[in-house]
Amino acid sequence: MLLGQIQEKDGRTMKSLPKALLVASLCRLLTVAIHAQDIDSIAPVVIKTVPEAGSKNVSPGTVEIRVTFSKPMADQSWSWTTVWKDSTPEIVGKPHYEADKKTCVLKVKLEPNKTYGFWLNNQEFHNFQDQQGQSAIPYLFVFRTKSF
To answer: 73: which strand partners?
Structure first.
């Protein structure tokens, strides 16, 4: 155990090691927190989806899915990936960003009474990136359509 006691050769117990490790960890944490206060240095995150993530009553048909990020994103760069087999709808148009460069739009055909799921970035694919090349934090986007 890392924070356990370590005995020296003469049998004395090093009781200050856990305290030293705790202080070192706190110093590292504070250093990261201080440097992470600049919004431009933080990875982009999803701040809004249409339909809203977790919705259970989405109208079926041809619709535009919209995902808005916390900062402007790199154009022609995205990773809409499946969560499970057949979790994504039929794609009708190519993805594109709106003029704000924060909202990515994907036109799709939704079937009635079906659950859909996308990973927006994941461990393998991370092409949703801001204009500085930082990958967005992966986001699980799941919703369900209503019956006719």
So the answer is: 130
Give residue limits of the domains in the chain.
6-37, 42-144
Q: Which two tokens stand for residue 64?
A: 């535009």
CA–CA distance from 66 to each of 32, 87, 90, 100, 120 (Å)? 32, 17, 15, 13, 12
| Overall pTM surpassing 0.85 (yes/no) | no
Question: Token pair of 141, please?
Answer: 């986007």
Contacts of 8 (CB under 8 A, 6+ apart): 14
Q: Tell me the CATH number for domain 42-144.
A: 2.60.40.1220
pLDDT values of the chain reduced to their tens digit, one per residue, 148 residues? 333 333 344 444 445 555 555 565 555 555 555 555 677 889 999 999 999 999 999 999 999 999 999 999 999 999 999 999 999 999 999 999 999 999 999 999 999 999 999 999 999 999 999 999 999 999 999 999 999 7
